[in-house]
Amino acid sequence: MANGLGLIIEQTNKLIISPQIYQALEIMQLALPELLEYINNELMENPLLEVVEGYEQGLEPEDFPLEEQIIEQQQEKEDQWLDSIVGEVLREEKDNWTVNNKYEKDSVPIEGQWLDNNNLVDYLTEQLRFIENSWKLTKQELETAQFIIGNLDSNGYLTLSVEELAQILKISEDEVLKALKIVQQFDPPGVGARDLKECLKLQFPLLPHCPPKMEQFLDHLDDLAVGYYKKIAQALGVSVQEVKNMGELLKLLDPKPGSRFDRSSDIKYIIPDATIKKIDNEYFVLVNETDIPRLSINERYKKTLRELDDQEIRKFVREKVNSGLNLIKCIENRRSTIHDVLEEIIRRQKDFLDHGMSALKPLTMREVAEVVGIHESTVSRVSANKYIDTPRGVFPIKCFFAGSIGREKEVTAERIKEDLKRFIAEEDCTKPYSDQKLAELFAKEGIQIARRTIAKYREELRIPSSTLRKKTCK
Predict the structure, then answer these.
(1) N-to-C CA span, the chain
(2) pLDDT tens digits for range 395-444
(3) Residue 225: its pLDDT value, please?
(4) Alpha-carbon span 22 to 326, nearest angstrom
């Protein structure tokens, strides 16, 4: 059968997301800080959008009495008169206030006078520049040390091996090691290490008294973490007390010397998207609208649309009007959807608001979506990266969607963790509960849970085993 070209007409159904729907989905997913940034960008790009002034007070020109309007007009006239007087003075004295360029050239700029201690790379580079002449570093040593500084991670550890550095820079490994030792003498102590053992070893000079077997002690860090003091003592030929003393000395050292320069862990402030208020034993949802500016379409451009004959301008104005109206509609739709979803969540999780995390009930997004009458993915967008301010504190919305544990359909993982912390807090530290004993305590309260599940949640809470809890008991 011969192949040929031809035209075939087919009718198919396809789901096409229009720009308006895509914008609505995007705005629905944005948290409040991101929404404010999005609105600011739209205000800069769309000249027809404007912020309604005095929205928070809800005041309109008709609200002012006639006498107050007259007083305002008089004040405006006085302000204009004062502005004209000040302008004349400024013009007369302009020559006297002009700064002589000679002094500008001789002055030293303030910027860059002080070292920015919030950047590890800049901090080390400044130290390298400072010792460049006094240590008589060669150009190669300087460039190698600078390359090493640029390959340190946020904790101050070297991310490349000596062999890899030698291959990249096309120099010998001895030359790399020489430059590395220069960097390792910089502040903070321990910077430039290739592993934890080397990092701690570089900080030994800081210890008031360093035991002779301290370096060998670093070979047993894994045993130290689980509390095998006798095993370490036998390996080093010292007493158990000496092992504990060396462990206390290690606590004086910093395993992450570069972490204090890492700004990724800075405090990030949360703006809740909604607030829950309790009034007469009832909870009400208040969506945060105080931070969101009220938008409207500029009437001047609407008039331009009716009067201008230029088709290009009319088309541009029409597109911007439609874009602005769609944005206003999307913001209102976001507000109403968040309100409806949170109302259903609060209705289901009222016990949590009354009694705390242990009263949190299993809840899925599908259950909320069916009641509100929206798709499950819309509930997911409403919950994404958003927080809610409740009488019990600020929580992410997603924390209200909790799954059940195995056969216990009415028990959540959060409740298991809360009860687990309570049991361990009440135990006798000289006879701590084993995971099996904890499972039996849950069984007495009517919750059937396996020992391995107890161990899983205990590890998630970073609670040590009963053996380690007994060793740390004082």
Answers:
(1) 90
(2) 898 888 876 665 555 677 777 888 888 888 888 888 888 888 888 888 88
(3) 79
(4) 11
Contact partners, residue 437, CB within 8 Å, separation at least 6: none
What's the Cα-to-Cα distance from 417 to each of 126, 355, 363, 460, rounded to whole Å? 48, 15, 17, 9
Report the interhelical angle of 139-150 vs 120-131 (nearest 10°).
170
Q: Are 317 and 48 spatial neighbours (Cβ–Cβ below 8 Å)?
A: yes
CA 189 – CA 204 distance, rounded (Å) = 9
Give residue-wise pLDDT tens across range 119-166: 888 888 888 888 888 888 888 888 899 899 988 988 889 988 889 988
Q: Is the separation of the CB atoms in 402 and 363 below 8 Å?
A: yes
| Residues 6 or more apart in contact with residue 196 via CB below 8 angstroms | 221, 255
Check the CA dihedral 374-380-384-386 and report its sign: positive
pTM: 0.54
What band does 339 get if pLDDT is binned at 50, 70 and 90? very high
Report the candidate in 381, 385, 390, 387 with the shortest Cα–Cα distance to residue 357: 390
Specify which residues 366 forms β-bridges with: none
Task: Output the pLDDT for position 77.
Answer: 55
Q: Which CATH number fits domain 404-471: 1.10.600.10, 2.40.30.10, 1.10.10.410, 1.10.10.60?
A: 1.10.10.60
How far apart CA 374 and CA 382 sit, in angstroms, is 11
d(CA 163, CA 171): 10
Q: Where are the alpha helices (DSSP H) in 210-310?
A: 214-217, 221-225, 229-236, 240-250, 299-307
- 106 pLDDT more than 50: no
- Give residue for tokens 């009400």: 284
**56 confidence band (pLDDT: 50, 70, 90):** very low
User: Measured on CA atoms in the order 350, 355, 360, 361, is the torsion positive or negative?
Assistant: negative
**pLDDT above 50: residue 64:** no
Domain-by-domain residue ranges, the chain?
120-261, 274-400, 404-471
How many Cβ atoms from other residues are within 10 Å of residue 152's Cβ? 21
Q: What is the pLDDT of residues 65-95, one digit of tens each?
A: 444 454 455 556 555 654 554 455 445 444 4
Q: Which tokens is 365 given?
A: 């997004």
Give me the count of residues in the chain: 474
Neighbours of 464 (CB within 10 A): 16
**How far is Cα 172 from Cα 149, in angstroms, rounded to an integer?**
18
CB 207 within 8 Å of CB 249 = yes
**Tell me, what's the pLDDT at 86?**
46
